[in-house]
Amino acid sequence: MFNRVHHIAIICSNYQISKDFYVNKLGFKVLAEVYREERKSYKLDLAINGVYQ
After folding, report:
1. What are the structural domains, with CATH classification, of the chain?
2. Cβ distance 43 to 36 under 8 Å?
3. DSSP one-letter string for 1-53
4. What is the pLDDT of residues 13-31, one digit of tens each?
5. Which of 1, 24, 41, 46 is deepest in the core (most CB within 10 A)?
6. Can you name the residues that pair with 29 across neighbouring β-strands?
7. Band of the pLDDT at 6, cuts 50, 70, 90?
């Protein structure tokens, strides 16, 4: 089993549904949310149990 995860990248087809899943279903906390115009995508930094690296 994992001790720690530094970061992962998840590509999704529906940003709002994915964000809702991680925040409202799994309980992650949003630390930062940035729309990257050059990529036409969002970058979402999340933490769980107060842990973010």
Report:
1. 1-53 (3.10.180.10)
2. yes
3. --S---------S-HHHHHHIIIIIS--EEEEEEEETTTTEEEEEEEBTTB--
4. 999 999 999 999 999 999 9
5. 46
6. 47
7. confident
